User: Fold these one by one.
Assistant:
Number 1:
Amino acid sequence: MRAVRAVRAVVDVLSTSPERYLSIDVAGTVRSEPIKGTRARSADPQADERLRQELAAHPKDRAENVMITDLVRNDLSIHAVPGTLRTERLCAVESYPTVHQMVSTVSARISPEVPRADVVAAAFPPGSMTGAPKISTMDILQRLETGPRGPYSGVAGYFSTTGAADLSVLIRTLVIAPGRPEEDEALLHLGLGGAIVADSDPADEWDEVVTKSAGVLGALGVEFPSR
């Protein structure tokens, strides 16, 4: 009789995502809070405030955020009760331990007879992960990217028996998958990216990627490979 070693087949998803994909409350109000625009925090309070103000006023970041907010409005309008779609916030800046983020909030009310899953599906995938126009952008990404993204840039959350739901966009997320069983190892994957537009500066975009990695890598006690 030969002993067979158990193989770990579970994938663990550890997320610190600050971005709400969709929430739906019991009364049928659906809300999305797309993020576009990131700055690193500074230990110097004055420098930190300058970074926050620079993000709030930066034309490229604001243009990106407005574009994605408009895309979310279109997604939510599919099942919205006419006259209830509204932009609650536009290009607001929220501060987290490692980053400042530019966030907008879009909400609508949906009819009781509309399945909650249909509302979630109509807005998927998150517009902040694709850009606009969504369908043609996804076609371009499929041609350019070398493999599937896995959980990264998808969503995670819950559906309640009350009809409520809350899901976040899987950014700032570490995926732990099985490695070679003979070495009892695991594979760690941290997906990172940025919004590339016509007036993007390559160095600035790279710095933003490094900034986005700080929370997860800091929790692991490691630095970004280029530093």
Number 2:
Amino acid sequence: MRDTPAHATQPRAALHGHYPHAQSVAEFRQRLVAVQDRIAAACARAGRNPADVRLLPVSKTIDEAHIRMAHAAGCRALGENKPQELATKAEAMADLTDLRWCAIGHLQTNKARLVARFAHEFHALDRLRVAEALERRLQAEGRGLDVYVQVNTSGEASKWGLPPEEAAPFLRALGAYPALRVRGLMTLAMFSADADRVRACFAGLRTLRDRLRQDAPAGMTLDDLSMGMSGDYEIAIEEGATVVRVGQAIFGSRALPDSHYWPGMGG
């Protein structure tokens, strides 16, 4: 991961309008194969096993008909940015009993009930108030939730996430919330055409994870790194990502620039 060849894929800083929309099950299958092929190529460059990288398709703003096509093409987990959109889709497609919903965006405490009820994963935990709200709701639901702690590795004020130096005490504090199963860390890289700046965000999260592992609370393995999206997931894999959140490369470019949906990020 540290000796990435100079020819490795560069980030795409302007995705708006870049990807045509998939309109059939066959097209979705082709998109999924294409992304998996690029995942495998990135793993080969980094000397990694492709089986160690999980693709999480991101379906935010995508309608039910196209999500059902994606499911028929093989998608069994989907990421949603907004809790209300996740809940609405989960209820509408409850007949797809093998489909897992993952909350990947910033969460306000008053929406914790939706994540606790409908989500199988939460990728953006960065405040104890949210942890408390989730714990209370999860206990009422009688279930647990896999979570990733979000760290702001770019230092940008537009992004949510803990400063790296606050991650260790935050992880220790999460021991008070048994319904939250900490799986690893998450970050959003700088949205830039400069591959070195993007790579530094991902490498920083991996380095932080390796350091935190040395004295992590009992039972907290921090195995996973959720990082990388449509424009930079190959770089993320080269730097150790185990989960990549890819939306536009599968579903197609969104109608509006990504900053409309999630300020400070790609997609």
Number 3:
Amino acid sequence: MELFNITCLGKPLRLEGSLAGWQALYWNNQLVSQLAASADEGEKTHTFQLTADENIITVDVTSLINWQPFTIDYKVTVDGEVIESGTRNEKDIERQQPVVAPEGKQKFSLIGLASLG
């Protein structure tokens, strides 16, 4: 289930999770962090790094999920500075648009076109 989908550094940042407790974080539709299910239901933090020129940028995504009633509190920091935080509930999840993964570009081959001819 998609827990939230926001923009971070000009690209989509999406957190997915399950009732079993695992979480997966995607930046620009690429998996950047994954947390396995665990018995402790506390705050969880995903951390990943990006390289811009010669600089390394550290992104932290912290979430606290309450399943009954459903709420998720989240905070996104870039190099220690909060760039977004918020709370979502089950109504927000119901209203969201599902993410559609971008399709790869189709490549045409001259050999393939010649074989059709």
Number 4:
Amino acid sequence: MTDLQETTPEEAAAKAGVLIESLPWLKRFRDQIVVIKYGGNAMVSEELQDAFAEDIAYLRFVGVKPVVVHGGGPQISRMLDRLSIPSEFKGGYRVTSTEAISVVRMVLTGQINPQLVAKINAHGPLAVGLSGEDAGLFGGRRRGVVVDGHEEDLGFVGDVVHVDPAHVLDQLEAGRIPVVSSIAPDLDNAGQSLNVNADAAAASLAAALPASKLIVLTDVAGLYADWPNRDSLVSSLTSSELRALMPKLESGMIPKMQACLDAVEAGVRSAAIIDGRQPHSVLVEIFTERGIGTEVVAG
């Protein structure tokens, strides 16, 4: 006879309480599309990678339709260093040369994407890897950045200006979890790839699907109204309140909060930034009353 650890009535009641707390959110999000932007420090730790894969599989098994969009800044930097290709940043954007865009494409689509798909598929044949270059999913245009009043060239860096979600919707209809790498073909230069910001790409895809919620994983607890005062963490705010705050934000937070703002203003019901360093933060955000991080809603 197998020796099982006995669960006390109190422990059993606590577990039941957690499950019951999730019931309203299971009702709300069942059959709904949720776009999750995955990247940064949440990618670096093996433990956090495994926890994220479990979260995504869990969402699928309880009837939510997750879509993952990923970047890969730390891995790209490591590969460029290994190949002795210089890394330069202007205005928070990586300057992407002809050599660098080949590395970006290789790391995102050839390394990170299949690794993440494999981790999710450890829980069942659910995930499928896609690139923003597949079936016209993303279309991009090159962009520069203004630094100290001057326009600076960024090389093969672009914005997502067109989204055709048909391929992603087909995968969702088939019961699969699309995992999308943030590379886009250049609409003005056939055959050329562009490095696009994964936060912005996730927001564009969330709006096009349309998704019920956008979640952006980051490496802070949420949005601080008065950084570095940790008591100024904002748990929720409206899109108009966020727009008023944008000029005061730290440069590293601006792309993530801009993605949330763009998604909500395009019709996504809510968007949130959460701390990807916390295991299972995706489940906490979706299935608990208080959530985690900072949520943006229309208003």
